[in-house]
Design a protein that fits this description.
The structure is a single chain. The protein is of the alpha+beta class. The chain contains three helices and three strands. A three-stranded mixed sheet has the order 1-3-2. Helix 1 packs across helix 2 and helix 1 packs across helix 3.
């Protein structure tokens, strides 16, 4: 039985964001979905420059959970950049 997911605090709406390689139509690209908590982790850690504990506190989660989220996010971003894929933001509202 899975543990209940802790509600995370997400400060920004990234639902209408998509990045793709230049010169290739999106319909021909494999897509990688970045969850809203992964995008928030990148924003807090990489853009704002906060320490992991500060990021975790702002998101209302443990530092170890934050560490797993940011590791997943970095791996997805690297995959997109290295393999010319489209990066799309997923939220509970646009998971179609």
């Amino acid at each position: 039985m899975r543990k209940k997911r802790v509600e995370r605090t997400i400060a920004r709406d990234h639902s209408n964001v998509c990045f793709k390689p230049c010169g290739v139509q999106r319909k021909y690209l494999e897509r990688v979905a970045l969850d809203e908590d992964e995008m928030e982790a990148i924003r807090l850690s990489d853009f704002e420059g906060l320490y992991q504990q500060e990021c975790a506190d702002r998101m209302g989660i443990s530092r170890t959970t934050f560490s797993r989220i940011i590791e997943r996010a970095h791996k997805k971003v690297a995959d997109v950049l290295l393999h010319q894929k489209a990066l799309v933001m997923m939220t509970e509202y646009n998971e179609g």
